[in-house]
């Protein structure tokens, strides 16, 4: 078979797989009852989330002492990971890099397609397949919708499959961000996420973090969501349908002050103007969707303020001083949550859990 017809066959198979309902795809990305490729928030149920959080808590306490850190550093010292981040990233990249290093995993990185053979015309598919010849895990961020999923699907067909973790894919999903966001809720509310009201603010249409976070909310009873945005950036209907199907109550509003005053957690986001076609974001007035110092007086005393970061003007810098500002701790939580996830994928979590 020549290369073109081979590719066409693969493309056909891929398109068929892509169109399957998510419930049918999930087993393909598991091994031995454990998550193997972490691609979508829908892969995570309540039990697996709590397990990630408990392992993350354990890792952060154990590694405070040298003996604990030395032990954790040895857990996966025989493994290597490739970080393939071809979209801008500071904290997701750094937190994955440091999560790998905490577990002793050696890392390589590509952060720009202009330094890889993609510049010589190699397809992204062949490029990622190449990684699997050298490493034991691929952690990736890619602008093309579904490409991370396609990589995992392709990898699982090769004779050297390696797990793939989605560090942000197009506008669609950012599951590990959602894990660390829920970990932040879990730590802030003493593990009680039930009955909480969570307001998500900003570009809900194109923000992948709010999409993945919405999916995870099905694991917690009686959570209410408030989507606060200008109508141009309203949450997409597929997520609203998902919430309806799972009886998660939500409402949409453009009244920022009224919305945030009801919330236990306020999740601010940036306008995702990298997805603009003709600078359309500039035409939308977002000034009434920004969290200013004065808003600290109208939110609940027990509320927390979150942000996946990076921020622009969505949160006034002076708000950082308030004890309810949780975003810098949220950022650090990401490293522990990601280290916990990786330890689970490689099946060494029981060694962490067993330690006193
Ligand atoms: C987010 C992302 O990349 O989607 N950042 C992150 O991973 N912490 C949010 C954003 O870029 O606005």
Describe this structure as you would to a colleague:
The protein is an alpha/beta fold and 356 residues long. The protein has helices at residues 3-18, 22-25, 46-62, 66-75, 91-102, 124-134, 147-155, 175-188, 208-216, 237-245, 256-262, 327-345, 349-353; strands at residues 30-31, 34-35, 80-85, 106-110, 137-142, 164-169, 197-201, 224-228, 249-253, 265-268, 304-306. The protein has two domains: 30-173 and 333-348, 3-Layer(aba) Sandwich (Rossmann fold); 175-271 and 283-330, Rossmann fold (3-Layer(aba) Sandwich), CATH 3.40.50.1370. The protein has a five-stranded parallel β-sheet, with helices on both faces. It has a four-stranded parallel β-sheet with strand order 4-3-5-6, with helices on both faces. Strands 1-2 form a two-stranded antiparallel ribbon. Helix 3 (46-62) crosses helix 12 (327-345), helix 6 crosses helix 7 (147-155) and helix 8 packs across helix 12 (327-345). The model has no long low-confidence stretch (mean pLDDT 95). N-carbamoyl-L-aspartate (NCD) is lined by residues 91-92, 168, 174, 177, 208-209, 269-270, 308-310. Residues 91-92, 168, 174, 177, 208-209, 269-270, 308-310 line the site of N-carbamoyl-L-aspartate.
């Amino acid at each position: 078979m020549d290369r073109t017809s081979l590719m066409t066959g693969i493309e056909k198979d891929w398109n068929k797989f892509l169109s399957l309902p998510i419930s049918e795809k999930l087993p393909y990305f598991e091994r031995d009852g454990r998550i193997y490729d972490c691609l979508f928030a829908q892969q995570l149920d309540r039990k697996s989330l709590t397990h990630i959080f408990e392992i993350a808590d354990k890792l952060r306490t154990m590694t405070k002492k040298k003996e604990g850190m030395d032990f954790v550093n040895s857990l996966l010292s025989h493994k290597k990971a490739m970080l393939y981040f071809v979209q801008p990233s500071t904290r997701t990249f750094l937190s994955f890099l440091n999560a790998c290093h905490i577990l002793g995993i050696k890392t390589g990185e590509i952060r720009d397609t202009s330094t890889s053979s993609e510049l010589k015309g190699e397809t992204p598919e062949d490029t990622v397949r190449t990684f699997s010849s050298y490493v034991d895990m691929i952690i990736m961020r890619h602008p093309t919708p579904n490409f991370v999923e396609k990589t995992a699907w392709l990898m699982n067909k090769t004779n050297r499959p390696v797990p793939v973790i989605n560090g942000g894919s197009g506008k669609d999903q950012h599951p590990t961000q959602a894990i660390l966001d829920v970990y932040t809720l879990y730590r802030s509310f003493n593990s009680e996420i039930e009955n909480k009201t969570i307001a998500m603010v900003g570009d809900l249409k194109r923000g992948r973090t709010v999409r993945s976070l919405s999916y995870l909310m099905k694991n917690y009873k009686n959570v209410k969501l408030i989507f606060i945005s200008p109508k141009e950036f309203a949450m997409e209907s597929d997520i609203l349908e998902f919430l309806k199907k799972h009886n998660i109550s939500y409402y949409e509003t453009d009244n920022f002050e009224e919305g945030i005053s009801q919330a236990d957690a306020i999740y601010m986001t940036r306008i995702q103007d990298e997805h603009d076609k003709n600078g359309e974001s500039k035409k939308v007035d977002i000034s009434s969707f920004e969290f200013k110092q004065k808003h600290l007086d109208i939110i609940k005393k027990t509320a927390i303020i979150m942000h996946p970061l990076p921020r622009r003007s969505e949160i006034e810098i002076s708000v950082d001083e308030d004890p309810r500002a949780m975003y810098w701790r949220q950022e650090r939580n990401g490293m522990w949550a990601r280290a916990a996830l990786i330890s689970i994928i490689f099946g060494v979590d029981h060694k962490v859990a067993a330690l006193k």
